[in-house]
Amino acid sequence: MMTPITSFAGKKVAVFGLGASGRISAAALLEGGADVAVWDDQQNGRDKAAAMGLRLKDLQIEDLAGFDSLVLAPGVPLTHPAPHWIVVKARQAGVEIIGDIELFCRERAKIAPQSLFVAITGTNGKSTTTALVAHLYRSFGYEAEVGGNIGTPILALSPPGPGRVHVVECSSFQIDLAPSLNASYGVLLNVTPDHLDRHGNMQNYAAIKERLVAQAEHAVVCIDDAISAAIAERLRKAGGPITFASITQPTIPDGIVLEGTRLVRRTAGRSSPIADLAGIASLRGRHNGQNAAAAVAALGPRGFDVETVQKGLASFPGLPHRLEEVGRRGKVLYINDSKATNADAAEKALLSLTDVYWILGGRAKQGGIEPLKPLFSKVVKAYLVGEAAEAFARTIGEAIPYEFCGTLDKAVDAATRDAEKSMTKTPIVLLSPACASFDQFSDFEKRGDKFRELALAKIAERPRA
């Protein structure tokens, strides 16, 4: 499928950055009647574009003054650490610089301005919340199109229209290239330091995140961190429709909050239950309480149909590599949390679980696992793999037993062996690496797929007596 960009018919557009989103943007513009030229710094990108029949034009030597717009891939630096050469050239020529989210917004404004559009951002939790919002809308009978930063380029989705909702994960890079982003429901989950090399400082980063909710028809803001709470207060004072969500402030007068494991709607200081998240494996942990609260708020008036919401939450399958339950070998439960590529992400898993046989390691991020020391009591034993093994062993010290395993297959073997000896009800073999995968795998998905394969092989065997 594809959304043709008819709103640019007859215009001359340059597309720079020919990854998946760049190529589909060029194709969608062509389909809609634009005159399109494409380029990429990398030969591989140019080759893929040429194979699709797209017209290559070396934009380093091309005069951009004749172009109406430059569509820039989100991975290309717009401001920091320095603007890319194509950005400098476009600005000098007075050519607007936009991204694929902006193309979608302009097309939606032209062909279906009333169609439902949910845009979700935040430093953490975006993908799970995006998937959950789409799942809940499907529970209400909508055709849900899911894309953006979650994996599928937005223009590879079906066009906006009646009975269809677009649920789109937006990175800060994508928001920065979408000046007219105006979702039906704009969701801000949280703001913590991230991508500062691309935005210069936290003030710039937070301002970009704020733009998504400030321009939405209805804002949904989680108020559990100071920056998001300040954004919410500014929006409240501005007078636009806004719903607060919180997992740390269950007594706010109005909003959707978490009381223990119960999701509750607060109205004029009174509580009405929405759903109990206890026992929903795909929504394990308080961080998923925040995701669920925001997702229900993004349903708007549909969220008051508690029975349908409860069924939707209970049937949510979750996402691969994010606290994904792979299965059981006897009493041993295997959980794939390969997406935990830093300590902050691994913290969510350890906070959510007990009796953990923890597989960790890879290519370490700055700070390693120092922040996780208070949670070592959740771990029975650690199994160290990859480049970070020695450094992580020094951090662990004598706090918990650990074993050098080197590779993932050896770690799964060792963790299974020890977990089966546990006297507890549900020992958990957890892959939550707190590291990038690049020492042994090309990405966290490949790492998680390998863990799942190894775990399923164990499950297929007869458990040891």
Blueprint of the fold:
Layout: E1 12-16, H1 20-31, E2 35-39, H2 43-51, E3 69-72, H3 85-92, E4 96-98, H4 100-111, E5 116-121, H5 126-139, E6 143-148, E7 164-169, H6 172-176, E8 185-188, H7 196-199, H8 202-214, E9 218-222, H9 226-238, E10 242-246, E11 255-259, E12 262-267, E13 270-276, H10 286-297, H11 306-314, E14 324-329, E15 332-336, H12 343-352, E16 356-361, E17 363-364, E18 379-385, H13 389-396, E19 402-406, H14 408-419, E20 428-431, E21 435-436, H15 444-460
Parallel strand pairs: 1-2, 1-3, 3-4, 5-7, 5-8, 6-7, 8-9, 9-10, 10-11, 15-20, 16-18, 16-20, 18-19
Antiparallel strand pairs: 11-12, 12-13, 14-15, 17-21
Helix pairs in contact: 5-10, 5-11, 8-9, 14-15
CATH fold title of the largest domain: UDP-N-acetylmuramoyl-L-alanine:D-glutamate ligase
Rounded to the nearest angstrom, the distance between the terminal CA atoms is 52 Å
Q: Hey, roughly how much beta strand do the residues contain? A: 15-25%
Average pLDDT confidence is 96
Which overall shape is indicated by the principal axes computed on the Cα atoms?
Answer: globular
Helix content: 25-40%
Number of strands: 21
Number of domains: 3
Q: If classified by CATH, what would the architecture of the largest domain be?
A: 3-Layer(aba) Sandwich
Low-pLDDT residue spans: none
What is the name of the CATH class of the largest domain? Alpha Beta
Q: What is the C-alpha radius of gyration, as a whole number of Å?
A: 23 Å
Strand order of the largest sheet: 6-7-5-8-9-10-11-12-13
How many strands, what sense, and barrel or not for the largest sheet? Answer: 9 strands, mixed
* CATH evolutionary superfamily of the largest domain: Mur-like, catalytic domain
- What is the count of helical runs? 15
Structural class: alpha/beta
